[in-house]
Amino acid sequence: MNAASLSATMLCGVLLDAWLGEPRRLHPLIGFGRFARALESGLHADSRGRGLMAWLLAVLPLSAAAWWLQRNLFAYSFWLGAAYATFALYLAIGLRSLDEHAAPVAAALQAGDLAGARAAVGRIVSRDVDALDAERVAAAATESVLENGSDAVFSALFWFAVLGPVGAVLYRLANTLDAMWGYRTPRYERFGWAAARIDDALNLIPARLTALTYAALGDTASAWRCWRTQARHWDSPNAGPVMAAGAGALRVRLGGAAPYHGVWETRPLLGEGDAPSADSIRRALGLVKRGVAVWVLAFLAVGWVGWWYAHA
């Protein structure tokens, strides 16, 4: 799969996501989630080794199948391979889904419907939404957009660009297992260690590229200042740069105390400038969308320059 075809299928995958959104029914990740839960049920123990074994059994066979399809479909027919690559990326990214989940929060806040805003934001964050006022609802949604822009969109694009469809598949499966097992709870502290650390490794480069993208497309000076001074205080090594740079780029104040399971947890402050609002949610969505457009156009330019040199 050469750079030109890779960049073209990336564009097609992004456009397909914009057109269709995530499948409402029969999404492959639903089946994968059930498979992962069955593995966890059979293999769970307070052991890092067991957790790593479960991760390998969940991810490697499916990634190997994705690699086999990538290799053989392109060898058989370029168009069949391109269709497979487009569909694989479409299933791996969630740009339209991000908008569909965050925009209703902004709309409810704009209308003064705090109960509706709380219900909408409760679908995308794990904190106790009934304890949130309008400003904290807006902060939760804005933070979710910035962080999930990295996890659900830019990282999938990055691994697709590096490895093709198998990269997008491997990343999405690993990210799903982190969402299922990567918690610091008594059940998952050791069993989920591998899932959390592998996801951290896979996001190490794309998270920082995402932060650079946010900085370049927003208030660059503020984004760089917040990234440099605030990111290291966040508990996640990848979410810190993404959210600090994103908050700075938007010039909005995020982070701070948030309620989880009946307890208010102290979190570092992020960003600077205005208090979060419905507008900050919409601007965060716009920042992610502009970033995706820039990435796709950049990959297209690289791909077609490579094609031109190869055929000159």
List the keywords.
cell membrane; 4% strand; 312 residues; two-stranded antiparallel ribbon; ABC-type vitamin B12 transporter activity; 4 strands; mainly alpha; membrane; Cobalamin biosynthesis protein CobD; transmembrane helix; two-stranded antiparallel sheet
Number of DSSP-assigned strands: 4
What would you call the quaternary organization? single chain
Q: Strand sequence of the main sheet, in spatial order?
A: 1-4
Which structural class fits the helix and strand makeup? mainly alpha
Order of helices and strands: HHHHHHHHHHHEEEEH
Q: Work out the count of structural domains.
A: 1
- Average pLDDT, all residues: 93
Strand content: under 5%
* Intertermini distance: 19 Å
Sheet bearing the most strands, described?
A: 2 strands, antiparallel
Question: What gyration radius follows from the Cα positions, in whole Å?
Answer: 20 Å
What is the overall silhouette? globular
User: Helical element count?
Assistant: 12
Please mark out the parts with pLDDT under 50 across 5 or more consecutive residues, or reply none: none
Helix content estimate: over 70%
